[in-house]
Amino acid sequence: MFEPLDPVLHSQLRLAIMSLLVGMESAEFTYLLEKTGATKGNLSIQLSRLKEEGYIDIKKSFRNNYPLTSCSITKKGARAFENYVKALSGYLSGEKGSSPD
Amino acid sequence: MFEPLDPVLHSQLRLAIMSLLVGMESAEFTYLLEKTGATKGNLSIQLSRLKEEGYIDIKKSFRNNYPLTSCSITKKGARAFENYVKALSGYLSGEKGSSPD
DNA sequence: AAAACATGTTTATAATATAAACCAAATATA
DNA sequence: TATATTTGGTTTATATTATAAACATGTTTT
């Protein structure tokens, strides 16, 4: 009934990042920063974690002389997100069972 | 879009406990132990945390000479659970927006 | 009486999330 | 031309969490 929740995704910020990325080709650091409302430090760390896990790709380049960090979800990441949502739904249903007492 | 998630409920075990309790009058320690698959120590601590937060009531008594811990959800806890589910749904939808790049 | 069981709690440790401080380069300003 | 500010991040430090392991207290069995 309570399948274990992927600890990588069971994080407010990482989940928000994945939720955004799953719906678009790619997103920039500053865009994620604004949409999630996170601090830069936290965002930086959680992006690294997601990349380390193979859930996203990170492409670093320059635009107008400034660094530009672009993130996109991987197949693996998309699958993990889907599984997480599925597993989580088991926790949210508020099961109507008979009282065990 | 990404409302903050109640940190008290954003915990695998605490969420599982609440999910069970929301569907029944009350549940015993050993029942929760079996249903959640948690260790006794972890369960004990997370129950204390939920009580401390006013999300559950804990009634200690004896049955057949053995200690018996019974837990039930409070109004406040039920509301918090509902709110958590609502807030979380904002993270799971996989928004289809135009790519910002 | 000794060993094993029931029902938890407390303590110690490892992992996480977060904010704060830092850094390097680019641009604006005095 | 200094110097101050902005951009776009990374690193470090700290507080919180989750978890397992050890402990406690009494009960039942042999």
List the helices and strands and how they pair.
Two copies of one chain form a homodimer.
Chain A: H1 12-21, E1 27-28, H2 29-36, H3 40-52, E2 56-63, E3 66-73, H4 75-92
Antiparallel strand pairs in A: 1-3, 2-3
The first copy, chain A, binds a DNA duplex (30 and 30 nucleotides) through helix 2, helix 3 and strand 3.
Could you describe the 3D structure shown?
The structure is a homodimer. In chain A, about 30% of the residues are buried. Chain A has a single domain, classed as Winged helix-like DNA-binding domain superfamily/Winged helix DNA-binding domain (Arc Repressor Mutant, subunit A, Orthogonal Bundle). Chain A is elongated, with a radius of gyration of 16 Å. Chain A is α+β, with helices and mostly antiparallel strands. The first copy, chain A, has helices at about 10-20, 30-35, 40-50, 75-90; strands spanning about 25-30, 55-65, 65-75. The interface of A and B includes residues 1, 4, 15 and 96 of A. Chain A binds a DNA duplex (30 and 30 nucleotides) through helix 2, helix 3 and strand 3.
